[in-house]
Structures are given as structure tokens and as C-alpha cells.
Amino acid sequence: MNHKILIACFGFYPETHGIAQAAYQQAMGLHRLGYKITVLTQSSEQPRHLPFDIITFPLSPSRLPKFNEIEVGKAYQQFLRESHFDVLFFHCWESWVSELALPILNQIRGKKVLVSHGTTIHLRYPGIKGWLRWLRNRPAAWQFSGKLTVFDYYVFLSKKPDKQRLSDLIEAKRLNLHNFSIIPNGANPRFFQQPSTDFWDKFELNKAKMLLCVGNFSQEKGQYELIKWFIEISPKDTILVLIGSHFNDYSNQLKKTFGKHLNTTIFLFEKLTLEDIHAAYCSATLFVSATFTEVQPLVLLDAMAVGLPFLCRDVGAVSSLEGGLCFKDKDEFKVLLKQLLRNPFTRQNFGNKGKTAALSIYHWDLIAESYHSLIQKLTSTQNNDTKTYLNSKNQLQSV
């Protein structure tokens, strides 16, 4: 391929958060297909040994540059003005990557594509703080429609019209826009393989039914509620394993609150390698999450890749995923958890459905082909006003 592609994202490999992983997998997939890839991201102290160019700017992962970063932000804008890419992918609303590009989009050569990872302008967490945050976001919400008319194209992760996290898709449809595609994220490619280690042996745990939760330790991820409900149910011969990137004040509070249960029925881990996390997935009985907000969580796609059924709060696009069940409140969680733990055939059925979907839809090789089709479409015509969607084989089709 002779097309030059820019992928701009506030985080990138070796960072491990979901948006960084998605941008990395997109870049690697298009690189393997022969495109000349350039990645633009924030600076990192960790080495990046990658087969394409990386351009970095020392900017914080925030909506707009801090006061002492204003000149760096201007340098980023100047780079975009002087660039010569055929297609530019800007990952994520509400980050400096897209916010600084918005005022100068008409000065940037090439087709400009916004890859949405959902919105937070309508997100409402429980409690007074959640409402105050929602109120602070009202001005951004009122102005949001304008952002949906300036990029050449948009990519959304799911077709589910979730009012809190997929409000951009809802608004695009309300405005009768057609310049968008539904292209999902994918599972970690390593999770389609057999694990290289035994989780039980390595961490010297007594074998039992394992409920697994993977995600950064934070109030928004709902680990407190999950642990509390688990203790209330106290399922027989079952342990709860929670894995986060690193311990913090929130995890310390969890340890203080539930200390007597730690290392008996509840286990907290940090800084595990990808191989160890993969092994945990393959050893688990059920993936569980009480998270308060998600769009299309990679941790669930990873569970699907290994055939692990899930039970997750009904947030974002989760209910559209094969491979598990959703709950709305504590009572429903308890009922469904007991049912799933009692019935191995039901778990196996959900696991099989999830793995089939991961292989046929949420696989990065197929997703790369979808982006390839989109690039070809964008570069083959000057005026593209065709609505596209993914069929069951993860191929772009037009209507």
C-alpha cells in the first residue's frame, strides 16, 4: 500500500489502558497490510520498539493542554497543518488529540476520521458528586452536535444506542448523518492461544471455583460493591480474584474494609504480566464486573476469547455482546450469579457463544480488514456520503 496513515491517540503502547491498546492493534494491523503508518501520541519514558514511526508530544492525557503545555499544543497543531497523510485517525473525544485538531481541521490535508471510544458528557455516577459532574458537562453536551459535522468520517464501536456512553451515535442518527461506520474493538490476540503458565500453581492457590475481575482499582469500576455482594452471598468453594494494574488508595481502602477475607476467599493482585493475566482468565469459572461505566470493555472481549462466560452490570454496549449475562442491581446480580455457579452447562454455552463471536467479530485481523476497506473507500472518492455497517463476517457494507 502506498497510502500514508496517521493514528493519533493520547496513549499508546506500552501503555495498557483500553484506548492505547485499541490504537496499537489498529496500527499493527494496518502495518501488516502494508500501509505506511505514523503514530502520534504523548511522550513515554518506556522504550517503544515498533516497526513504524512514532511522533511524541509531552502532553498530559487530558481534554486540553495545561497552562505550561500550551506551546506544545501549538506545535502539535502545526505538525498537523504541515502533514501530508492520506487518512488521519483521531482516537477519542474529549482529549487533546481531537480537541486541538477541531479548530484547524479545514487546514489539514487528507481524510479526517474520529474514532469514538464513547462519550462521558451524559455520564451520571451515583451520588451528589455524580450529579455535579453531569451538570458541569452540560455546556459541552449542548455544543456537541457541532463536532459531528466537521470530521470527514466517524467510527463507532457499537450500534447499541446507549444514552450515557454512546450518545454520539444517537446524535449522529438524530442528525441523519451517514458518514460513519460501526467497527468494534477486539480481544487481545494472545488470548486465543493456550496459556503458558498455570495460575493456581504459580500463586499457590487452592483450587476452587474462581470469580475473576480485571480492571484498574477505582470507585467507578465497582470493586467495593462486587466484594460486598460476594461476601453476602458467600458461595461455597468459590474465591474472588481481583487484578488491577497497581495498588492505590482505593485498593488500600478495600483491604482495610474487607481485610479478614483477604487471602482466604478474596485475593487482590497488581502488576501481573500479560501471561499471568491470561492464565487467570483460563483458570476462572466466571468473569464478574460491577463497573458503573464502560463502552465496549476489552476485559470482556478477552474473556470471550478464552471462552470464559461473564456476568457484568448493564452498561454501555455490554448487553450486545455474546458470551454472558447483564444485571441491573444487586438483587439481580445475586440471582444470576447463583444460577451460573450451579449450572456448568449454562456457563459452557455462554462461553462457546462468546468465543465464536470473538473469532468471527472481535478479532483484530478482521478489524484491520474493516479499516482497510474504510481507507480504500475514503481515498477512492472525494465525496463519500454512504452509510456503512459490519455484516456477520465483520466486513464493511454500504446502504
From TrEMBL:
Annotated Pfam families: Glyco_transf_4, Glycos_transf_1
Entry superkingdom: Bacteria
Start and end residues of each Glycosyl transferase family domain: 203-355
GO-annotated molecular function: glycosyltransferase activity
Positions of the Glycosyltransferase subfamily 4-like N-terminal domain: 18-159
PANTHER family: SULFOQUINOVOSYL TRANSFERASE SQD2
Protein name per Swiss-Prot or TrEMBL: Uncharacterized protein
Organism (species): Runella rosea
